[in-house]
Task: structure prediction
Amino acid sequence: MVSNVLVLNAGSSSVKYRLIDVLGERTLREGKVERIGEGRTHQEALQELLASVAGQAIDAVGHRVVHGGAELIAPTLVDDALVVKLEQLSPLAPLHNPHNVAGLRAARAALPQVPHVAVFDTAFFSTLPRRARTYAIDQELAQRYGVVRYGFHGTSHAYVAELAARALGRPLTELRLVTLHLGNGASACAVEHGSATETSMGMTPLEGLVMGTRAGDVDPGALLALLRSGLSVDELEQLLMQGSGLKGLSGVSNDLRDIQARAAAGEDRARLAISVFAHRVRTYIGAYAATMGGLDAVVLTGGIGEGSAQMRRRILQRFDYLGLTLDDDRNDAVALTDAVPSALLSTRASRVAALAVKTNEELAIALKTARVVRGEQRTNTASSIPIAVSARHVHLNEEALRALFGPEHRLTHLKDISQPGQFACEEQVSVIGPRGRLDRVRILGPLRQQTQVEISRTDEFALGVDAPLRDSGKLEGSAPITLEGPAGSLHLREGLICAKRHIHMHPSDAEHFGVKDGDEVEVKLQGGPRDLTFGDVLIRVSPSYRLEMHIDTDEANAAELGQGAEGTLVYTPSSAEGVVTSRRLRPSAGG
Result:
């Protein structure tokens, strides 16, 4: 039984810690050991830390690790090989990863008898689509040196997105959120139907919003000019990381409270710092609303997001055109606590909500750690799941059927497909985009409430469209497309998607596997010459479903899957907690 988890955040000069009872979700002890590097090592700091929690059981240790790179996308049990891999990632986060690793080594030496789990800030952003992840530089160089957008603060963004969904009384998988982690480090994230689809920080934590001492977005040409002017690489790095942001703008401080006091006293540079900070955040909110095709809520967290009513007001003003209207009284009254971790900031008539949410990265890390450890302690045999390749297809409603095939037409059954009650039809249509068309696209029956077209990324390019990755039926803000049938054509203002890979499960399967509708899991595919593991596989549960995983043709080709391919669930997340367990699952009696 995992009850008490010690969460460590090791930095260059201190180690923050919190001992958390994960069963009761309460803090038992917390604090900070400082003055590391001033004659004191991380090992000595850990001994002092352990003395401060003496008398309390420690069942596991969870470590915050800033950069997990491209491969480390889930909480991971720590072994010697992982430590080496993390050291290799240090150049990507030189202010954080080396110290995270030093703390991890010290903790393993001090507590060798308990499991240690690394939780990565970058992991939440493994779902970023290629268009958001890719920088427009030579791709051979980009691949050689790992120059892609990784994103940071992922644990916080995922946690507050879940809390915001609960506060709004809606499933996270139905929402389009902009989450804003605003503190000495600051970042924005677009959370679209539960997955991160954009974020402001990039290959390193330097890109994006204005931060306490970091510059955020700067023209690369300006940086080259500074280098040519005589600054060394080290001097430029120092400027961007320690001498920029609010500190560089104000000329005095990186503490917003101090800057606001100076601005009130009439200091122009302090006023400029506040204006630039708020302007940059507002720019990202508008951009992310556009990339998601709409917006349901803006969520503010972090020291500034939770604590500064003045900055929240500056950020959220003049968004009435998006349907967001700030309630000044509510904004001024915010007082977040562990018991009341969220507060509505918008008016009741506001179509787009705004919330302040108290982040708790330590609790999120503790819950993830406990689930990984509990999973590793289980000995259940993993069960196989049959894989079906879902080619491009169309689902029609009654209105679309009449428009494409005539008023009296009825769908003609061709053959049953794997899911009970569903069938392939004789009818086919053409799918027409601005660049090209796909002919003889099969219709699947029976009729639905909404017309939906599902394609692959390869099809998307051929049609010249930008189709969002969505769960079936989640069509709001999806792409427009034209269908052509024998009796006429039909233009859809929305309805074109790339379907998220998913697993159909009967409730008995879900019960045995320990998952629920809306969870996302990782599946290792077998049956082809390539060893591939797919993450972010959506669980869909219904009494009418038969156990089966659906992937599209691009994904099947990537794995070179043949007939009879199967997959194995590797770990199971809990969408309610935003955490992951690394357990293997026992065989199901259903399906």
In short: The domain at 380-386+502-581 is CATH 2.40.40 (Barwin-like endoglucanases). The chain has four domains: 4-120, 154-362, 380-386+502-581, 389-499.
